[in-house]
Design goal:
Blueprint: H1 2-16, H2 21-35, H3 40-51, H4 58-72, H5 74-86, H6 92-108, H7 111-128, H8 133-144, H9 146-149, H10 154-163, H11 167-173, H12 175-193, H13 207-220, H14 222-225, H15 227-236, H16 242-260, H17 266-299, H18 302-313, H19 317-334, H20 337-354, H21 359-373, H22 381-390, H23 394-418, H24 421-428
Length: 431
């Protein structure tokens, strides 16, 4: 158990020193192997087998599809369609941002892709219309998390593989919480801007004109709107596995961008493919070392020892759930969502099993907490990525971000934790 804590402490220090995540976990795996006097090559074979699984092939497919969204014209058409509904009200552009990130999440499954595709369009537009730059940046950052909660979600794919749960059920576990969180963010956006007199709003149109605008933008966005139904419909109808659905998403995006919209150039295709390859490679590297560490820890019974340690603190289910939430939040603040999901599966799954938490419910708790952690300092990769879009200093947008998190996301964490029906109802339909 001591070796485990030493290894985790080293990884945390390396991450805080801004050592790349893959190298941090790689050094941690080597240290763990050396201190525990185990043959690292034995565990490496297990890690290779895990990252070579067919289910994990969905990861690069959805990553590439997500990076291609911004150049295919899909994201801009989605924005225009949502804008036709709420864009002419005070704070409407903010609601457009939130809802577009949610819809984009149902296509790409990547929060970083949502920031790249939606943030680069909406942040300058919001600032131009008089939105406070800090509010605009914060809104994109917190809304990007919806892409992690609304299926298909890349971190949830990895979590399902690590815990040997149904990918389809894990997908559905975070869907209702994700939709509720989107509505909460829209409400908070309107609340925070209600007294802001600097925001410019387009003149209201007659109802007939609004209907016409919705029809025109909807017709142009039809191929984008039906894409989530094709992907998720294929998975839940049993026609396609998540991996096959990822392949369909990629081919669909290419056809729409190259043939239908003709907005995707070969140069953009090459650039997006390069970005996706780098991102996928870094994620696979992290997963490989995490699976190596997990194998050694499992053989040493460390997850069970950790579970016994937590149970020795308290046998009260509510107290243990609060501790688990705190640990997940800390994980999300230090590592990315994919790494956090695997760590949660390794370390905390034995705890939730011993206190009688459904693994699918735990998936929703993990997804909601890691999303909160990924936009909470010190590391906050999604928050800093959103700040990179506006090139603003952290002090400008950290305040608005914390208001969204404390009034929106944090309450949703407790709702998901203590009302399991929100997470289990939809998965229960596909028994």
């Amino acid at each position: 158990m001591t070796i485990f804590f030493i290894t985790i402490a080293l990884v945390i220090v390396l991450l805080l020193l801004e050592v790349p995540v893959g190298f941090s976990f790689g050094i941690g795996a080597l240290l763990y192997g050396g201190l525990s006097d185990t043959d690292i090559s034995f565990h490496a074979a297990y890690g290779y087998a895990q990252v070579s699984s067919f289910s994990l092939l969905a990861l690069p497919l959805f990553v590439l599809a997500g990076t291609l969204m911004g150049t295919s014209g899909i994201s801009e058409r989605l924005l225009n369609f949502v804008n036709a509904f709420v864009g002419r009200t005070k704070g409407g552009l903010g609601a457009v941002t939130v809802l577009s990130c949610a819809m984009f999440g149902a296509i790409s499954g990547s929060a970083s892709a949502a920031i790249a595709a939606i943030g680069r369009i909406m942040v300058p537009r919001m600032i131009k219309e008089g939105y406070p730059p800090g509010h605009a940046t914060a809104l994109v950052a917190v809304s990007s998390v919806l892409a992690l909660m609304i299926p298909p979600s890349i971190p949830m794919i990895v979590f399902a593989i690590a815990t040997r749960q149904s990918v389809a059920k894990v997908f559905l576990a975070t869907m209702i919480p994700g939709i509720l969180l989107a509505l909460v963010y829209c409400a908070l956006n309107f609340l925070f801007l209600r007294k802001n007199s600097s925001i410019r709003v387009s003149p209201a149109l007659p109802l007939v004109e609004v209907g016409k605008e919705i029809w025109l933008t909807g017709r142009k966005a039809t191929l984008a709107i039906i894409m989530p139904f094709i992907i998720l419909g294929g998975i839940y109808s049993g026609i396609a596995t998540p991996t096959e659905a990822g392949a369909v998403a990629l081919v669909y995006t290419l056809l729409v961008g190259l043939v239908v919209y003709r907005s995707m150039t070969m140069g953009a295709l090459f650039h997006a493919s390069k970005e996706a390859a780098i991102l996928t490679g870094s994620v696979i590297m992290v997963l490989f070392f995490l699976f190596i560490m997990s194998r050694g820890m499992i053989l040493a019974q460390i997850p069970n020892q950790f579970a016994d340690l937590l149970l020795s603190i308290s046998d009260n289910k509510i107290v243990l759930l609060l501790i688990i939430n705190l640990l997940l939040l800390i994980m999300g603040m230090i590592v990315d969502d994919v790494s956090g999901g695997v760590l949660a599966a390794i370390i905390l799954m034995p705890v939730v099993q011993k206190i009688g938490i459904d693994p699918i419910h735990f998936a929703a708790i993990v997804g909601t907490n890691l999303g909160l952690g990924n936009i909470s300092p010190p590391c906050a990769p999604l928050l800093y990525m959103a700040g990179g879009v506006t090139r603003l200093p952290l002090n400008v947008y950290i305040g608005p971000t914390m208001k969204f998190l404390l009034l929106g996301h944090l309450p949703m964490v407790f709702v998901v934790t203590f009302i399991p029906e929100l997470s289990l109802w939809l998965p229960g339909l596909i028994e």
